[in-house]
Design brief:
Elements lengths: L1 H29 L3 E2 L10 E5 L3 E2 L2 E2 L1 H15 L5 E5 L6 H11 L7 E4 L5 H10 L5 E7 L3 H10 L3 E7 L6 H23 L11 H7 L3
Helix pairs in contact: 1-5, 1-6, 4-5
Length: 213
């Protein structure tokens, strides 16, 4: 019985370290750097909009909320150039670009990142492929702390704005719970410097910013 108790305590400690460690790192790295309104967020030249599902060629409600929040930043003069990062499996970047253009953004100010298959890939490619040093990341509020932490860990001075308008239903809560496992994966990716196909440097962001002097 004593041996079993020790095994259970050891297992509990391991779970706390494995799950709690990455969670604590994300909280520290994102502390004081996240908001749920464009009104409160600081200005950064570049905004990184994280991809999400596309429904019948249009942004899903979660993705539309992200894009609308990025548009709020842009309309307030707190963003100049957009990186729309997502998977090409359902044309996320192109769909995001089209929505922004429909809402008044010059297509020349939108850079497509078609290799953003997850948060680590989006941040790593922003740093290594597009050469971004400062950025505002936009996603849902439960996702923003990890994204800000990830971008900072790969060398970008990042802040984040998270949409908090979607219903806190079962879908939302499942995504919140998923963040615990995603934090662990993120830390593994950062430590391993996982290759996300950065390839050659892309000057698209720099050229877009140069258009604005």
């Amino acid at each position: 019985m004593r041996i079993l108790r020790r095994l259970l305590v050891t297992l509990l400690v391991l779970v706390v370290v494995i799950v709690g460690g990455p969670w604590a790192l994300v909280q520290v790295m994102s502390s004081g750097r996240t908001w749920t309104s464009a009104d409160d967020a600081p200005a950064r030249d570049v905004v990184l909009v994280m991809g999400a599902a596309v429904w019948n060629g249009r942004p899903s409600p979660y993705l539309q909320a992200r894009l609308d929040l990025a548009l709020d930043l842009w309309r307030q003069g707190k963003a100049t150039v957009f990186i729309v990062s997502g998977s090409t499996s359902d044309d996320e970047p192109a769909t995001m670009r089209d929505y922004l253009v429909e809402n008044g953004v010059d297509e020349a100010d939108i850079v497509l990142d078609e290799g953003g298959d997850d948060s680590y890939a989006s941040c790593a490619r922003a740093a290594d492929r597009f050469g971004v040093e400062q950025i505002t990341v936009v996603s849902q509020s439960y996702h923003v702390p990890r994204t800000v932490a990830t971008c900072r860990l790969v060398g970008i001075d990042a802040v984040g704005v998270g949409d908090d308008t979607r219903a806190k239903d079962a879908t939302w809560n499942s995504y919140v719970r998923r963040e615990l496992a995603a934090n662990i994966k993120m830390l593994i990716d950062v430590v391993a410097r996982r290759d996300v196909g950065q390839n050659e440097p892309d000057p698209a962001v720099r050229e877009a910013l140069e258009r604005h002097g």
